[in-house]
Amino acid sequence: MLNPLSEALVTVGRGYVRGSSISFGKVPLTVGFLNSHLRDHPRRRVVESCFGVRYAVDTQDLIQRYIYLFGVWEPHMTRWLRQRLKPGDTYVDVGANVGYYSVLASKLVGDQGRVVAFEASPAFHERLLQQVRLNGCRNVRAVNAAIADARKTLKFVLASSHNMGANSIVPWDGEAESEFEIEAGPLTEMLEADEIASARVIKVDVEGAEGGVIRGLAPMLDQLRPDAEITCEVTPDRMAQLGDSADELLETMRKHGFNAYRLANEYTPESYLTALRGSPVVPVRLHGRIVEESDLIFSRVDAESLL
């Protein structure tokens, strides 16, 4: 049974974290109480983000808990995307999860733009559709399918419901919370010709399967508009378990004229509090290899930072 006092403290504490310009006590409050309490005693609510988009969340999950608590997910990437997308653009979301970026992009590109969202998990696909309905988005094409380098059937594993974004085809040795199989195909076959031609930003967040996604994307890279950019979470260790290489992914993108920029990203509550009150962080040119999980932005811009 939930403690009424604890629940009241959560409500007041969240209001302080999200609504107050004062920083005093926010770190211990968030780290020592709010984050763990919301994980272990989930709330299911409809909340509004910092930028006015509504989301139905379940705080058991990391992504949805942070949206509830901070009003944003991945603040640096969110800020960058809000600067990049304009009315009439197309946004392609590979690994849409519960729809955070898809719905945000829908609002940014407007009625004349479009969003194509691919999510492999049937359960997350339903949550994605829920967010679309909640926000009255009419420019989103949501597809319950995986993206790969060829037509195939893939087996996904969810290791923990505390991080539902960790759905992956990477082999899992421990006990899995759930497993499912889904049909997959390359973006060259899953996107319409006009969606390819108008794509401004393509996001790839597939928990280790990014090598296959990029191989399937490669034949259409030269068809993208000159200012098209690709955001990609690159996880070298997970890629290696599938026989893929981060070096190969980088080389593929460079061969097609795309330079790699790294955008800082952390998932601790402290980092979110710092990001929300700090100066904007810009992507910086990647020199050398990728040796750890990294959020990359591939762009034809040739500079030391991506403004």
Automatic annotation (TrEMBL):
GO molecular function, a single term: methyltransferase activity
Domain Methyltransferase FkbM: 93-258
NCBIfam families with a match to the protein in the record: fkbM_fam
Keyword Methyltransferase: yes
Protein name: FkbM family methyltransferase
Entry's Gene Ontology BP terms: methylation
InterPro entries: FkbM_mtfrase, SAM-dependent_MTase, SAM-dependent_MTases_sf
Keywords tagged on the record: Methyltransferase, Transferase
Pfam families to which the protein is assigned, alphabetical: Methyltransf_21
Organism: Streptomyces anulatus
